[in-house]
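Journal club prep, shared notes

We agreed each person brings one worked example of a sequence with its structure written out as tokens. Mine is Cytochrome b5 heme-binding domain-containing protein. I'm keeping it raw so we can talk through how to read the token line rather than staring at a rendered picture. Sequence first:
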Amino acid sequence: MGGVAGKGKGKGGPEDPEGKGKGKGKDKDKGKGKDKDKGPHASHYYIDGKIYDFSEWQFLHPGGDAFFAVSFQRDISAAVHAYHRNPDKLTPFLQKYEVKVEEENPRDVLVKDMNAPAFILPPAFDARRDVPIYDWDKPFMKVLRSKINAPEMQKRIRSADYWFDFTAWCILALHVFVCFPAVYWRLLPGWLIVVLQVITRTSLAGVGHYHIHRAKDGMTDYFDCFFDIQYVGASMVLADGHVMLHHLYTETPADVKRTVFNFMTTIPRLLRIPIFTAQKFGEFFTGHLLRFSDISLMQPTSWEEFSGQAHSFFHEMRVIRWMMLAEMLWAALCGGIVVWFLQFFFTVWTNMFQIVASHDFEVARDEQEYSGLDWGVFQVQHALDTYVTGIPHIDIFLTAGLGCHRAHHVLPYQKSGFANIASQQALMETCKEFNVEWAPARNLLLDRFLPLMWHYLTVPAQIPAAPAPILIGGTGFSGFVKEHLKFDVIYRCLEDVGRGFQGASL
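Then the structure, token by token:
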């Protein structure tokens, strides 16, 4: 899946700014200078029908200034209301930074493409029209917050966050053991190494998933890079693409996650597995390293700027990309390269369907008005909980963090999967109070993996379009043959693999 924040680092994840954090802001004048190149509204953000200038506040923001990097001229109303534990406390900040603009309709300030690459947006997408509007005066979230913010519940959540990270360190230790000592001394059979690596990579990706949502302060988010360890994710760009463009706009035309995964269906069926696997290998092998160096270490003009950029480079890398390459090299030196490639293949495809399983992306939906939505109700209805063993604290890792997915979407600011487990009962009780159906969790293998594999691997090659996709070869057996005979389609597939090695697909 290609990256999302193609016009900057794209790191997001606002944290609860109640005056407790200290933003690690960069030089303000330097930030403003960059904004000047982006147009007159480069420091403007749309919230609840009003426009705000955060050119000063972004460097004081406890969640880090990176959150603002590419989200200018977007509707970030949901970021204010859903990504903060007590959003009402933000009112003084908003009043201070509200500005008037010349446009008669404030939504005209919104940039149509949300500063995202065109290939991940639906055809004819226009953010001024297609970004969902939530009614934050509805009572569901107010009732839920009163339960979540209760002192005893907050104590449980803090404890849950601690034990989640402690467990993450244990899983990391197991992963390192399986990849290095176990390979060198041949302590385990090859098939078990494959199984264990798929499990540890999936689990660590779930850890990175939650750290991506944390403040970008270089401290509490120290595990965000592990979003990458399953070869599918890219923390460098998913902090914006996942945190800001998926969670804020879930299952609406603005949800880039749905469009990204439809990319697979543009590949002819017989080539779908080899092409997609080869592209992911290219991104892992050289693509990410080239993209990191391109973004993080470009043209420093002073030692201070160089040292700052180098720190950012190391912070984002966290040696995870080098470690992943070292795992492959070590396996090759120890005569286990075949086992390595097997675990790579199964890790990629397991996690690919793991991510797709989180929502009903494969279901075609009728067009509707995404206005006046109740955030809590909408998220419960459009996110899926999954299970493997039926034990939540184990499944939160085996499902890459998606076991309590509905709680995660309703309360995306929470720092860990264990915190979502602790909060789920309160969410279920609130749903019962408001007569919102709480559907049973789905079996990850039987209800999601197998149907998804059949759908994504057998659906005809197609180009996403509205109201229906355009079939590249047509229908039936003749369509199956024709989609594999189109030279331009095959050439584009090979080009996509090359772009993976170059880092251009991120």
